[in-house]
Design goal:
Structural class: mainly beta
CATH topology: Deoxyuridine 5'-Triphosphate Nucleotidohydrolase, Chain A
Number of domains: 1
Number of strands: 11
CATH class: Mainly Beta
Shape: globular
CATH architecture: Distorted Sandwich
Bound molecules: deoxyuridine-5'-triphosphate
Distance between the termini: 47 Å
Helix content: under 10%
Length: about 150
């Protein structure tokens, strides 16, 4: 059973979930924009929200735009704080090397995912407790069928 969270919103284009069970609701552009190859632009959505305290909204790319046109979001996931009351804007990047991408107001350009978030209480200590992973990261487990090329170990 999906939990429903009330999110107050102003603006003309209320984000919509395309299917039951979708995690992201589509955000649309409030303006026309042309992105040349390699160009980025901060595109307004015309909407502002008030999340309940204890929630965050992430602005994330649409995979169809990414796969078909190379359109992504520079700062993905863009973080919308519960206290933010300004317009939600999307920092789009056209990664295609040759094709420009035209956005018309009303086009679906991104999706917004609303999630509960905890507030960390950072506790300074001299030494961290051990763990199975330890300090391994950045490919420390290697890749199937390939030897590690990292000379640091
Ligand atoms: O893709 C995004 C990311 C952020 N925001 C809005 C909501 C967020 O609450 C606010 C600030 O974002 P963030 O904290 O990422 O920006 P900052 O660069 O740290 O600026 P600030 O000093 O204003 O926090 O901008 C968007 O509209 N779209």
């Amino acid at each position: 059973m999906l939990q429903s969270v009330p999110v107050l919103i102003t603006g003309d284009h209320v984000p919509t979930y395309a299917h039951p069970g979708d995690a992201g609701a589509d955000l649309v552009a409030a303006e026309d924009v042309v992105l040349a190859p390699g160009e980025r632009a901060t595109v307004g959505t015309g909407v502002s929200i008030a999340l309940p305290e204890g929630y965050v909204a992430f602005v994330v790319p649409r995979s169809g735009l990414a796969a078909r046109h190379g359109i992504t979001i520079v700062n993905t996931p863009g973080t919308v704080d519960a206290g933010y009351r300004g317009e939600i804007r999307v920092i789009l990047l056209n990664t295609d090397r040759t094709e420009e991408y035209r956005i018309t107001a009303g086009d679906r350009i991104a999706q917004i995912v609303v999630l509960p978030v905890s507030r960390a209480q950072f506790v300074p200590v001299a030494t961290l407790p051990g763990s199975a992973r330890g300090e391994g990261g950045f490919g420390s487990t290697g890749y199937a069928g390939t030897a590690r090329k990292d000379s640091s170990s």
